[in-house]
Design a protein that fits this description.
alpha/beta; TIM Barrel; 8-stranded parallel β-barrel; two-stranded antiparallel sheet; 45% helix; binds flavin mononucleotide
Amino acid sequence: MIKPFKIRDIEINPPLVLSPMAGVTDISFRRLLKGRGGIGLTVSEFISVEGLTRHNPKSKRQMRFYENERPFAVQIFGGQPARMRMAAEMAEEVGADILDVNCGCPAPKVVKHGGGSGLLKDHPRLEEILTEIKKAITIPMTVKIRAGFYDHTINAIETAKLAEACGAEHIALHGRTKEQGYRGQANWDLVKQIKETVGIPVSGSGDVTTIEQAFDRFRETGCDGVLIGRGAMANPWIFRQIEDAMHGREPFQPTLEDKRAVLLEYFEMLREDMRELAAIGRMKQLAGQFTRGLHGGALFRTAMYHSHSVTEILDRISEYFETISEGRQYFGEAGPPHEIIEAPALDSCELASVTAAS
Ligand SMILES: Cc1cc2nc3c(=O)[nH]c(=O)nc-3n(C[C@H](O)[C@H](O)[C@H](O)COP(=O)(O)O)c2cc1C
């Protein structure tokens, strides 16, 4: 039975979380997806505590959120307890509902300074960080971890127990090691084991892209929540579809018009929020993920890739969706071929030599 859960008194309803993704889940993307429905909790991109505590404007911007996005978690990363504590205080000050600590990022520049997944192999440091943060904030502290650092040092259960002992109120596990990166399959059995071990809510992350997979993961592991990251880039309606199925409704099926509208809406939000060039870059990223599997999607992605202005992007979107909604074949930037060259008929001698050579 899939039901809402609580992080202290904050209801996560439905129990579906938009997984944090650096460079993706910024304020515009979260607003876009929240608007499609079915999301119980959104999380910021991971934010550098070095940036925050040194008043880097980019890091501060990353903490922005919309009121109707609540409940909203700010995720921070870093390896220095004092800076983690200061950044956690800042997150509480800006009004975040939850403070999430990143213990999973595999990027070398993050790990080198002891942060992200580096904390999985340095439990004393993790303990100090969580204890410091816990003393400083009144909002719930949660932790997102990986299975372990190396493939031969899987310690997610110990990490989860430590986090709980330090006062964490929710654990999210991405069931891959730091060494694994994004290769192979996420290990959901570990989610089950953590759920059986700790008393706080536990959610799982990794490879959920369909309604069936979400249902299976809930049933197999008994987890409280499911996070979806990459699957939401390909299908912004995935949360709503899962929620529909949870309530016994026919899952929402977006039309081509819905798909076109979501791209345009996203582009508009991006342009409101950032410089034109940056908005164009982000737009290409989403369009790339979003049109996988759509008819002529690969050609559309190439056309988008070669677009360098707002007008070009808008033109490519109109051309593509107009063409496929009329059932015509999309030929990409080159347009339809101008003349069809008939292959010359082969006489029987040529046919014999072709057959012999093949
Ligand atoms: C582009 C990208 C950026 C990510 N950034 C973060 C991040 O900032 N913080 C974090 O905890 N996890 C991050 N992750 C991991 C995801 O939250 C998630 O745990 C992982 O992608 C597996 O889930 P999925 O298969 O649903 O994408 C990122 C993943 C991707 C693909």
